[in-house]
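A student in our group prepared the protein record below, which I am reviewing. I have pasted the whole thing underneath without changing anything:
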Amino acid sequence: MMRRPWLALAMLMLMPLAAAARGYTPQGRCGDYARLDIRSPAGTCVALLADENEGLRAPRRVLEIAPGRYWVVDMGSWEPRKGRLLEMTLPADGPAPRRARFTVLAEQLDRPLGLALGPDGKAYVGEAGSIWRTPIPAPGGALLRETLIDNLPRDGRHPLKELAFGPGGRMYVNMGSDSDDCRDGAKAYPLPCPDGTGPMPRAAVYEGIFGGDGFKLQGFKPFATGLRNSAALTVLADGPAKGTVLQGENSIDYDPADQPPEELNRLQAGRDYGWPYCVGRRQPARGYEARFDCSRTEAPWMLWPAHVAPLQMQVGPAGSRFAGQLLVAWRGHRPAGHRVVGYKLDAKGMPSGRPIDWLAGWTAAPGVRPLGRPTGLTVDRQGRMLVVEDFNRTVLMLMPDGPASASLQR
């Protein structure tokens, strides 16, 4: 018997359904691809590159690892050992609408999520219980997997491992909490929460330090704690805030549509960000009222609407129209979610202001589109934004709306 109802629900959401239940109906052409009716800025359109017809099951990450070569992490489902690492290429010729082509690089991965290029030029992959890397082979070549960290916690509500690199050979890793709000089997709220104890505390972001010959892992320990689930994790690479670690917090699952807010946190070594005792701007969480001093924790840098579910973020690359923005994939099904947004970086290099919509109006429209479920994004060398959806099993691309232009440079 499955003892975690939330896991049963999550697995059900990723089980195969009829194509019409999650599919899109093309609305003409977006360049050489099928156009989707998803709102985007003037002069752009959203193209469908691939969906379940190409065998996609639950894509979570996409990254251009070499010019014209994209790797896609397909988690498969919440069931262990169903994940794959795929290589995607876009055909340069052939009749429209064109479709992406895929090659399977690795199979039977355990709920993979994290995908990043390291300072050593190798690709790093985060599975639920391990992190490994490989040199990028020539097209058609085999991976040379090297396991860096093994035996990580792979159970509970948040087993997925996001990765982000910072300066000085540092790698940051999500170690999500075991539960939603730390309630135990008796529905009590323990203090302290067991997730924050033991030899490898959870609800934290860890820091791995690399160096020396071969860029070897020299240390791995908690960096910041009190973080329920850090699936959205990035490090500012340039500007006055260079090296700053940013985390998008998926907060506790309250029923009200407007509570509690999600958070954008500026992480600092050794600081506590409140979970499960505090939510929002140091407000007591349910079950911990008058039991914990939230003033001891770090306040969020920014509050985001409740339940938007930030699942990946990165800074737009220089030279693209996304430069100077923190881009975020919001997967949540509540009204403020299911869109891709950007936040401008201010004079101090930090995200500020109101969100800029890049993909929006992504509500369900029968016969036209399903509800948007963006889980990952990247901007390629041509300045085009690629977005993946797990539940809808798609790879999408935001691109110029016209045959003459092939990039989204400024």
